[in-house]
Amino acid sequence: QVQLVESGGGLVQAGESLRVSCVASGLRFSVTAMGWFRQSPAKELEFVATISARSGTIFYADSVKDRFTISRDNAKNTLYLQMNRLNPEDTAVYYCAAAPSLLPQREARDYAYWGQGTQVTVSS
């Protein structure tokens, strides 16, 4: 049974940083592309970042480029999202997802497994 468990969300002020994590189990993490998505009440599910199985290829949404960094530790089956210079528009539930692919994927439909999400709230 595949499980993705996010943690690290919370309430921060604008301009601050936060790192969210996702621990995976029940899958071959080292050969699985991973991604982060987010959803706020006013918006549809939005792509944030994706990383290939061996970290060689990474893509970001334009809205987070140069502020967020996705990374992974295959020895720990863990995916990370370092978020810097947060602003209120980043407020959302952040989900990690696993794709049946070595290559990074930008579309939610290409992901087979999803975590339960972790809330990130940025106050102004």
**Which strand-content bin applies to the residues?**
over 45%
Question: What coarse outline follows from CA principal-axis ratios?
Answer: globular
Would you count the extended β strands for me?
A: 11
Distance between the termini: 40 Å
Reported for the largest beta sheet, the result is: 7 strands, mixed
Topology order in helix (H) and strand (E) letters: EEEEEEEEEEE
Mean pLDDT: 96
**For the CA atoms, what is the radius of gyration?**
13 Å
* Structural class by secondary-structure content: mainly beta
Percentage of residues in helical conformation = under 10%
Number of helices: 0
- Stretches where pLDDT falls below 50 for ≥5 residues? none
List key phrases describing it:
single chain; 124 residues; seven-stranded mixed sheet; four-stranded antiparallel sheet; 0% helix; 49% strand
Write up this protein.
Strands 2, 4, 5, 6, 9, 10 and 11 form a 7-stranded mixed β-sheet that branches. This protein has 124 residues and is an all-beta fold. It contains no helices and 11 strands. β4 and β5 form a beta hairpin. The radius of gyration is 13 Å and the shape is globular. The model has no long low-confidence stretch (mean pLDDT 96).
What's the arrangement of secondary structure elements?
Elements: E1 3-7, E2 10-13, E3 18-25, E4 33-39, E5 46-51, E6 58-60, E7 68-73, E8 78-83, E9 92-99, E10 113-114, E11 118-123
Q: Short summary of the structure?
A:
By secondary structure, this protein is mostly beta strands.
